[in-house]
## 1
Amino acid sequence: MILSSASVVAFGASLLVVSAAGSPARGSSLSGANIKRDAALDDWISREEPTSYAGILANIGEAGERSYRADRGLLLASPSTVDPDYFYTWTRDSALTFKALVDRFFVTKDGILQIHINDYIAAQARLQPVSNPSGTLLPDGSGLGEPKFQPNGTAFTGSWGRPQRDGPALRATALITYGKWLLSNGHRDAAANNVWPIVANDLAYVAQYWNETGFDLWEEVRGSSFFTSAAQHRALVEGSSFAASIGSSCAACDSQAPKILCFLQTYWNGEYIVSNTNIGTGNSPRSGKDVNSILTTLTTFDPLSPTCSDITYQPCSHKALANHKVVTDAFRSLYALNANISVDAGVAVGRYPEDVYYGGNPWYLATLAAAEQLYLAHAQITRHATLSITSVDIAFWKALDAANAAEGTFPASSQTFTALTSALKAYADSYVAVAQKYTPEPYGALAEQFERSTGAPLSAKDLTWSYAAFLTTIAARDGELPGSWGAANISSVPPETCVGGGVAGTYTAPPTNLTWPDVVNCPVIDDLHVTFNVLTRTVVGQDIFVVGNVPALGNWNVDGAVKLQAMRYREADFPLWFGGVELARGQRVEYKYIRKDGGAGNESSVVWEDGANRVVEVQVQGPGCRDAIAVGDQW
Ligand SMILES: *[C@@H]1O[C@H](CO)[C@@H](O)[C@H](O)[C@H]1NC(C)=O
Ligand SMILES: *[C@@H]1O[C@H](CO)[C@@H](O)[C@H](O)[C@H]1NC(C)=O
Ligand SMILES: *[C@@H]1O[C@H](CO)[C@@H](O)[C@H](O)[C@H]1NC(C)=O
Ligand SMILES: *[C@@H]1O[C@H](CO)[C@@H](O)[C@H](O)[C@H]1NC(C)=O
Ligand SMILES: *[C@@H]1O[C@H](CO)[C@@H](O)[C@H](O)[C@H]1NC(C)=O
Ligand SMILES: *[C@@H]1O[C@H](CO)[C@@H](O)[C@H](O)[C@H]1NC(C)=O
C-alpha cells in the first residue's frame, strides 16, 4: 500500500542529532569500523521501514486506509474492532507516535507528513474540551486525564482504568517538539496560537496532578508509575523553556519539575527501577520489573546530556543499564521462545513477568524498546568518548563481554571502550533480530504481541505503537537522534527528602479555527489513494470487490475488480469491507460493488449491486500533496 510519496529517509553512519531547527547538529561520528552489520537484518529493516510508516498512516483518520469512521487527525491504536477492540484513539499512543512522526518530519521534510501533524494538533484542540468520565477541561483540567476517546472524537463512557496521567505530558512533548520547529522556521504565530494553548493546558494538568495516583501505561494498576513521572518531569522542563521562547511563562513548571525529579529518584531500589509504586491494596503482587522502565529511557534520552546521568535516568546511565539487564533477564526463563539464548544475545521481551493478558506474551514494542535503549546508550557513550562502569552496572557489561568488562573509566582510545561499545551495538541488533524472527513475511505486519511458545502474532493487528516503535528504534540504530529537552541543565542531586506538590492551574478551551503556514515541500500528487468502504453482509466463502470504469477498477470487467478486505467486519453491527487503489486526481470515476461466491473466474457466481452506478470525484481540498480520500457506502 503506497499512501505517501514520502522521500525515503537517508540513513547514514554518522551521528545525527535531529534538532528542532531542522538543521542537524552533528556530533562525533561513529566509526562503524568495528561494527559488523548483518546483511540479512539490514535487508529486513529496509523492507520493514516503509511498511511501518504506511502502517501508521493507514490508522490516521479520516482517509487512512484502515481508519474509516475516524475523524481527521485522530490516530487509532489499531484497526482491530474485536478481540480486542482497539478502535479508539488513545492520548498516550497518539502522542508517542506523533512525537516519532515529528522527528521523522525534521529529516524527510515531507509535506504530507506535516499535514498529518497539523491535523493531529487540530484534533487535540477539539478533544481537550470534551467532557468525559475523568472530568472536564473547565475549571480544573480533570478531563485531560481521560485515556481514550471514540474515533469520532466523542467521549468513551464505558468503564476503564482512569485517569491516566501520562497522556497530557506526552502530548505536550510531541507538540512542543513541533512548536520549536515552527518557531525556528519563522512561524511564531502558529507556535503561539495553535500549539501553545493546548500545551499550556497539558502542562497545567501535569503540574496540578503529578503527585496523585493514576493508572499506568498498561491501564491495570492504580498508583505511581515511573513512566508517567518521568514523562511529566520532562514535559515541565521543556514546557518552561518553550513558554519562554514564545514570550510566555510557566511558573508551575518551574516550581513542580524539581519536586518530580526528586520523586523520580525513589523508584530506584538499589538494583533496578521499580516501575509501579504507591500501589493500593487489592492489586496482585508484582516485582516492579517492567518494560515500563525501559520505555521510559526513550523519553528521558537527551542527546546533549554531557554525562550518562543517573539523576535523569539517561539510557547510558549506570542505573538504566543495570535495570535493562534485570528487566530483560526476567523474560529469559519465562518464555519457551527464549530457551537456550546466551546472556550476550537479546530475547523476546514482554511487559512484565507477571502479565496474564492474552496469557502473558512478548510484545513487539517491548522487544524493540530493549534495542532502542541500547542504541541510544551507544550514541551517548560514543559522543562522550568515555565509558564509565561501576558496581551498579558491571553485571550488565560482564554479560556482554566477560573478558573485557571491568569497573573503571575507559577513554575512546582504550581496548575496553572499543570492545564494549561494539558488543553493545551487537547486543542491540540481536533484539531487533528477535523482532524480525517473529514478524510474519511477506507483508511485515506488526501486531501487538507474539505468542510465548510459538511466536505467532497475537492480539491487536497492525498496532500503531508497534510500527512507531520500529521506526524510532531504527532511527536510533542509524544515529538519527531526537532533539534535546534540556536534561543537560539538570546536574544537581535533588534534596534527600522529597516534598509532595501540585498547584491548581488555569485552563482554557483552545481555539479550533487553526490556520497553518504553508507546508514545506508539497507538490501536487497526481494519484490519490482512494479507499472504498462498504457495509454489506456476507457469509463465509463470499468476497466483496469494487469494479468501475477505469483500468485500476477493472474497466467494468469482473476479472479485474479489486478485492476488498474484511479485517474490520463485525458480525453483529459493522459488516465492513474495504480496500484502496491509486486513482488519477481530477477525474470522475463510476463504480459498483460486486459479490463473488465461487472461486476466481466463476462468472455465474458474481452478484452485482442494483441501481445506478456510484460516483466518486477524485479530488481533495487543501494543500496539493494531500494524497488520500475515502468513500463510505452501504449495500
Ligand atoms: C460517535 O461514535 C460513537 C461510537 O460509535 C457513537 O455511539 C456516537 O453516536 C457517535 N457520535 C457522533 C456525533 O457521531
Ligand atoms: C507525592 O510526593 C511525595 C514526595 O515525593 C511522595 O513521597 C509520594 O509518594 C507522592 N505520591 C504520589 C501519589 O505521587
Ligand atoms: C534448548 O536446548 C535443549 C538441549 O539442547 C533442547 O532439547 C531444546 O529443544 C532447546 N530448545 C529450544 C527452544 O531451542
Ligand atoms: C540550558 O542552559 C543553557 C546555558 O545556560 C541555556 O542556554 C539553555 O537555554 C538551557 N536550556 C534549557 C532547555 O533550559
Ligand atoms: C478564531 O476564533 C477566535 C475566537 O472566535 C477569533 O478571535 C480569532 O480571530 C479566530 N482566528 C482565526 C484565524 O480565524
Ligand atoms: C460457480 O458458482 C456457482 C454459485 O455459487 C456454483 O453453483 C458453481 O458450482 C460454481 N462453478 C464452478 C465451476 O466453480
## 2
Amino acid sequence: MELPFAESYKIKMVEVIRRSTRAEREKWIQDARFNVFNLRSDQVFIDLLTDSGTGAMSDRQWSEMMLGDESYAGSSSYYKMKEAIRDIMGFEYFLPTHQGRAAENVLFSTMVKKGDLVPGNAHFDTTKGHIEFRRAEAIDCTIDEAFDTQISHPFKGNVDLGKLEHVLKSNPAERIPMIILTVTCNTSGGQPVSMENIKAVHSLAKKHGIPVVFDSARFAENAYFIKMREKGYGHRTIREIVREMYQYADVATMSSKKDAIVNMGGFIGFKDPELFRRASLYNIMFEGFITYGGMSGRDMNALAQGLYEGTEFDYLESRIRQVEYLWNRLNDLGIPVQQPVGGHAVFVDAKRFLPFVPASQFIAQTLVVELYLEAGVRGVEIGALMADRDPVTRENRYPSLELMRLTIPRRVYTNNHMEVVAVALKNIHDRKDSITTGYQIKHEASLLRHFTVELEKI
Ligand SMILES: *Cc1c(COP(=O)(O)O)cnc(C)c1O
C-alpha cells in the first residue's frame, strides 16, 4: 500500500480553543452587527478569517526572536533580513515596513499620483484602496476564466495580455506608473500566475518602459503551483523557481504575515537604487528609520528565518495539501467551490450556494453569518461589501463573483478542524432553499467599508 501523506512537522506547543452553543453565537453575532470582524476571537471556534499573521512560528523562528538586535540603526537583524531577501528574491535594496499595506503606502507615495492608471490582476483590497485614495485607478486585467468558478484553469491568476496591452496602448506611459502582478492572486481565489505569464507581462511592460511590481504576499505558494502545474518546472526547487520569478520584477511589496510565516511585518524590495532612495524618505516619515521601518529587531530575525522555511517544498506541500483536503471534502459534499484549488484558502461560490438571496442583500456575507451560527467557524466575505462603492458615482459595485473565503492559517489547525468546517457547510447546504433574505447596511465607512460595516437582518 502507498503510505498516506502526513505533515512534515510535529506540534510542540498548543493553544486551547473553545466551542460554544448556537444560542451564544446568535447573541454574539447580533452584538457584532453581523460583521465577523467585530467578533471577539474567543467567540470563534475555528478562525478562517485570514491567513494573515495567524500562522504558527517554528521553534527556529522563536529562537531567532531571542537573538534580535534592537539597535535603532544598522542592527544585525536588519542585515539578516537583507541577506535573506537578497538570497531568496534577489533584491539588492529593501525597506522594512510594519506590514504589506505599509509597503504599499510607502511605494505608492513615491510612484502613484492623481489621475494615474495601475493595471494588474485583481488588485488586493488594500492595494486598490491605496491606489484610489490617491485618486488613481486600478484596472483589473485578469483573464476571464477567473470569473467563472466552475472553469478549471491551472493559472487563474494570469493577466490577460490583450487587456493589458489595450490599457498600455490607449494611454500615455506617463499615466501608468507601474503594473502590479499579485502572486498568488488573493482576490480571484488564491490562484497562481504562471511563469510564462509572468515573463509575458514583463516583456510587455519593458516594451512600454513601465516597471513591474510584484505584490508578493504568497510568492512561495505561487512557486509551488508553478512547480506542480507548469511544464518544465517539476524538477526545479522552490527557491530556483522563486529566483526565476523575481528576475521579472522591478519592485516587490511584501506582506510577511503570509509566506514569511510571521505575525507582523513587511518590506519593499527594489532593484533600482534611485527608486529605493526616493522611497526611503517616505519610509522614514511613515514607518521608521530605513533599518527597522516599523519592525522590532526580533521580528526581523523571525521574518528572515520564515522566508527560508516558507520556501521549503516540504512545508509548502503540507500547507497546500491541507487546503486541498478541505477543498476535496467540500467537492465530495456537493458544495460549489472555486475550481481548481488555490494556495491559501477555499473559496465557496455563494451565488450558487444561496441562489435565493438577492445580490443587493449581500449573498456571501449571508453565508458567512450562517456558517458562524452553525459551527462557530469564521470565514470572510469577498463580494459586494468588499467591492465597496464606485469612487466617482458612489453606487454599490456588484462584482461578478460573490465568494466566502475560508482561509487556512499556516501550521495551525488539523484536518479534524477542516472536517468540522465541511460538515457545517453541508448542514447549511441541506437547508439552503429556506435562506431567502440577507442583510442591509446600517453604517459604513467611505473606504474599505467591509472591515467596520454594521448590518441588520432583512
Ligand atoms: C495581505 C495582503 C496585502 C496587505 O498586507 P497586510 O500585511 O495585510 O497589510 C497586500 N496584498 C496581498 C495580495 C495580500 O494578501
